[in-house]
Design a protein that fits this description.
single chain, about 475 residues, mainly beta, 2 domains, disordered N terminus
Length: about 475
Amino acid sequence: MGHHVHLNFTRCLIVFLFLTGIHFQLPGKQIIHDTLLHWIIDGVRISGNKITHSRVILREMEVHAGDTISTGSLNELLDKSRENIFNTRLFNLVTVEVEHSSGFDRITIVVSVIERWYIWPIPFFQISDRNLNAWWESRDFSRLTYGVDLTFYNMRGRNETLKLIAHFGFNQSYGLSYKIPYINRKQTIGIGFGATVDINREVPVYNEQNQPVYYKNGNQTPLQLIFAYADLIIRPNYFTTHTLSIEYNRYYLSDDVLSIPGFSLADQKLQEFFNLCYMIKNDHRDVHFYPLQGYYFDIQVNLSVPNTLVENTWVKTYVRKYWKFAERLYFAAGFIGQASLGSNHPYYLARGVGYGRDFIRGYEVYVVDGQHFALLKTNLKYAIIPLTIYNIRWIRTTKFNTVPYALYANCFFDMGYVYAPDELFSTNPYLQNDLQNKLMAGAGLGIDFTTYYDIVIRLEGSINLMAKPGFAVHLIAPI
């Protein structure tokens, strides 16, 4: 229910250490200028993969041993192969180059990687508010949950991921998940599964003045949740992924929250239901964690298994496009839309604008719930420091001594609309707030810093249509 704030002291230390480095260089790439019309690929040689199996890397290559490649398309295929390998998020640095073989028209592809550190015990802190910016207004440290998120990336060298969580304090959560991206020889089918148990002493129960109101009653637990899921993942090519999921939800609600109008639309303390979910994703971004060029598209469908207590059926889409206008100058636009079907939506399942990535800059501290919503985000940025590689010579391990980083100045404009029909308020009057059924827009300026291990730090100042200025810190890409 709350926004998770991960304070990764190890990663913060890394960012500090690279500032003390004494040498930097620009990343390069191999360019083929020869006049031959075609090249024959003798083989692919991989180095630096001490843990990662070679077949995980070869799966992402767009050129293979035995291929005959035209000179005009070779550099593009090598660049795309490098992007594909980097986007596995297994490596800090990837280079793809060519070497001439013994034959006149034969070459060998040379892939060099620097592996990441794969075991991350990340300290966990949770403030029981929607997000960091909302919490900043009260700065109440008594609402603290603490623990650890332990993640093992690249298990068995096969890009498998195991996550364990243990959170204590104000709210408690325990869980695990495991993802196996490929279980067949062709590396096109994968699986995932997981389960969590949440014990909450405070939960948001309705909205007032476009902000959630939280309920707590001493040491009582107004909401307990058991959640489990299983995924079937199909990736038939480099860019398309299908995910089919089945989810089990078991909510146990106290009498106090059941008595709040609209929080639950049924009187039962125990409310169980299943969801069937399907998502198709088409991803052509150059760098997934902070894209500059390419495009992304997905559609998500969540079907609620017929249930008299809960109806949780919705359709959602993300569309993002990234352009390079000129040297160091980039533009991006993104659309987010969601439509919910039916009217039997209890408050504890309501998710409108103001959660996760679905917010309008300038309105970070607000929640706007409704049946449907649409957002448009735009961003123009200039690379003050383009992608640069920094070498910290006194750190010996390549997992930490080779640091890519970049710095961007940007301006943005976002707008959105949340539709909330009158009949929605007949079942839950506390959902009604004055930002519903009204155009929202925000604009501003910001600074983005990116570095390795997918670290993004964004500082943004904004102003919205209510003429209210704001300042926000974000830890994900803007679009």
